[in-house]
Write a structure and sequence with these properties.
The complex is a heterodimer of chains A (235) and B (84).
Chain A: E1 4-10, H1 17-25, E2 30-36, E3 47-50, H2 70-80, E4 85-88, H3 90-97, E5 104-106, E6 114-122, E7 138-145, E8 149-151, H4 154-162, E9 166-171, E10 190-194, E11 200-203, H5 221-234
Parallel strand pairs in A: 1-2, 1-3, 3-4, 4-11
Antiparallel strand pairs in A: 5-8, 6-7, 6-9, 9-10, 10-11
Chain B: E1 3-11, H1 18-29, E2 42-48, H2 53-68, E3 74-82
Antiparallel strand pairs in B: 1-2, 1-3
Classes of the chains: A alpha/beta (235), B alpha+beta (84).
């Protein structure tokens, strides 16, 4: 099988780019490719990951300036053609700012930056990012953010709900979605959503930080494995 | 003749302003019992090198919608001032 080339965009201020590179390199047949924000060439990659961090210092708003970087024009085209794009944390913020996903992320309800293990429930196990998960499976994947409070107008939330676009919700260890298990105040405990076409996923938790048991959890691998399965199916 | 745009970006009322809440509590703790609320926004100055006010206004609206504010959760307002 041909190797999978996994692009990782590096913005000034990205700080999970190399963690993501490390995690992706641990999969057989996957070759991570770092893509600098000033480039216009995606170098033939099969998928793009927008990593966590503080692109452009989070100036103005998280993701607001990154959205207009040269590479993002290419990523938007790539996504519109149906290729997979995964936005993690700051990458999720960039996807929302760029209009590839709907809604916005504001400051955490309790004003604090939260770096902590969390549990999320898989709400839709049929996407190309979650096919290796069981429906309603509880995954242990950490969060690390100050602005992860997901918001969208009620009509958008209803539409996301109807179309199965809400992919992950914060939950307790047993899978109950409760106010206590909502770390940041997100509407409906939303931790991750997908676009209507099913090829662009954004989430606040960091799957790359849950990619080997030594890190406390390897649940994040399921997202990457699902994605690689879908690419293999395509080849 | 350039214009100076004084732009204010504020969170919509429906969005919880956690910074504003923290400031409000601090003011109350300082004994300002009559302070009802505080909200925090952004103030941005942009110099626009245009002679025509209508054109400067158009640019200002465009940059506010495109970059300076996020319409999902923020409002904006601006004043245009002639600079001599």
């Amino acid at each position: 099988m041909a190797p999978i080339n996994a692009g990782i965009v590096v913005f000034p201020g990205s700080n999970c780019d190399h963690d993501t590179e490390y995690a992706l390199a641990s999969f057989e047949g996957v070759r991570p490719v770092l893509l600098w924000h000033n480039e216009h060439d995606l170098r033939g990659v099969d998928l793009v990951v927008l990593p966590g961090g503080f692109s452009y210092g989070d100036y103005l708003r998280a993701g607001a300036i990154a959205r207009f970087s040269p590479i993002m024009q290419e990523v938007v085209d790539f996504a519109r053609k149906g290729y997979p794009v995964l936005g993690i944390c700051n990458g999720f913020q960039v996807l929302l700012e760029s209009g590839l996903l709907e809604g916005a992320l504001s400051r955490n309800r309790d004003k604090k930056f939260i770096c902590s293990p969390t549990t999320i429930r898989v709400e839709n196990a049929t996407t190309s990012f979650t096919s290796r998960c069981r429906p309603r499976e509880v995954l242990s994947i950490p969060i690390a953010h100050g602005e992860g409070n997901y918001f969208a107008p009620p009509e958008v939330i209803d539409r996301l709900e109807e179309n199965g676009q809400i992919v992950f919700r914060y939950c307790d260890a047993r899978g109950n979605v409760t106010p206590e298990s909502n770390p940041n105040g997100s509407i409906g405990n939303i931790a991750g959503i997908i676009n209507r076409e099913g090829n662009v996923l954004g989430l606040m938790p960091h799957p790359e930080r849950a990619s080997e048991t030594l890190l406390g959890s390897s649940d994040g691998r399921k997202l990457f494995e699902s994605l690689f399965d879908s690419l293999a199916g395509r080849q | 003749m350039p214009f100076n745009a004084k732009i204010k970006v504020t969170l919509r009322q429906s969005i919880l302003d956690v910074q504003g809440k923290a400031v409000e509590h601090a003011l109350k703790n300082l004994g300002y019992a009559s302070v009802d609320s505080a909200r925090i926004g952004k103030y941005i100055e942009v110099s626009i090198n245009e002679n025509d006010r209508t054109e400067a206004e158009r640019i200002c609206n465009e940059i506010c919608q495109k970059l300076l504010s996020n319409p999902v959760m923020e409002n904006y307002a601006f004043e245009l001032e002639h600079v001599n």
